[in-house]
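Pinned message: reference record for 8-oxo-dGTP diphosphatase
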Amino acid sequence: MKLLLVVACALIDADNRVLVTQRPQGKSLAGLWEFPGGKLESGERPEPALIRELAEELGITVKEDCLAPLTFASYAYPEFHLLMPLYICRRWEGTVSSLENQALKWVRPGKLRELSMPPADEPLIPPLIDLLGA
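Predicted structure (tokens):
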């Protein structure tokens, strides 16, 4: 089975809310809410990949020392096995905006379970609740 490595980020605002983005129509798992991030390119390390993805998707600049690893998900989809480290980030430059026509939502950690999310994202919620509270 193919192993797919993607990185994700829990951007946390001053009110301890977490940003989630909605997968746009035309992509797999369209309509589901997820943490921003994406696939690593060949030879890319996770942190630079996440910095690149956050700039491309949300128009923000993140420095590598502002990313802290929190947890990871390991999930077997029918076509591949997904390994996804989740980083937290509380500091960035710029204003978060949707550059890829995806909906954005700031959510309290305890409310994340109320959203329809990909199965690989669901195990990432409890560590966020432990860190930030509900």
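Pinned by admin. Summary line: The helical segments are 46-58, 125-132.
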